[in-house]
Amino acid sequence: MRISPNLVPMLVVALAVLALYWPLMYLVNIPVAQRALDTGAALPCQTAFECATQLRSPVLPSPQQLWNGFGNLMLPLNSPNAIPINAAVTAFETVVGLLLAGVVGFFFAIGMVASRAFERALLPWIVASQTVPIIAIAPMLVVLLGQYGVQGWFPKAIIAAYIAFFPITIGVAKGLKSPDPMALDLMKTYNASPWQTYLKLRFPASVPYLFTAFKVAMTAALIGAIVAEISTISFQGIGKMLAENSRASDVVAMWVIMLSSAVLGILLVALVNWLERLLTPWRRAAGGAAVPAKQARLSRQEGVG
């Protein structure tokens, strides 16, 4: 079986992390195991070195413990306590939040590019909104929406959107400002309306920035959804599982859930990458570079004005 060249760096990093994980695991677990043996705790081992991989609440679980933990939390797939169904709920909240953030961020970005006064008035408040701890906002937002009968997954999606709209707004605004000044002057020469300039020049030029912003925003939305699930009353989701196992002091399960959320984040960003390749085939043909002058020539050929 042939391995994709794109996977080789990832595999190298994974092997390096695994090679470093073993000695680090023993380094942090042996003192804990020794203290447990000194207090006379009933452990299925005789030495601290042996017990380092068999602690019920290790600082770092052993690979075997992680493997067993994945097995316990993955099956059955339809179980309310299994990772797959809870990850699907969190992924749904994340994607909906990202779409909401995309709509809001896109219109904010257009306004910021169209009006310098609007940008100066809005940008400080956008920045300030991201300095408020989401863990403090989430419960208040859920209570507020609950008064209007909005419950379930939608408040979590709104919180995810709240975290994600900032990188989308900034990224799209930068993309809309990216066309070459000569290309913008050419559009003015052909008496193009502002809408035609956006449609034929600014929007195409912003596509690379848009997908880059969506990749950053996707991870932010995922974090927002998980934090919202932790800090509010949730019956499903990765955050709900983290909160439950934290209260139960199940360290191995918490590590398994955290690793699963990392995998979920990778898959969601991979989805954005796939959509980028699907929707921007011209970028692959051009080596991924935006060519504003070419866009201007195409606009001239189409006869704007």
Automatic annotation (TrEMBL):
An annotated GO cellular component: plasma membrane
Record's keyword annotation contains S-adenosyl-L-methionine: no
Alphabetical list of SUPFAM superfamilies matching this protein: MetI-like
Subcellular location(s) of the protein: Cell membrane
Annotated ABC transmembrane type-1 domain residues: 87-276
TM ranges: 7-28, 83-110, 122-145, 157-176, 209-233, 253-275
Membrane topology listed for this record: Multi-pass membrane protein
Xref: InterPro entries: MetI-like, MetI-like_sf
Family classification: Belongs to the binding-protein-dependent transport system permease family.
Protein name as it appears in the record: Riboflavin transport system permease protein RibX
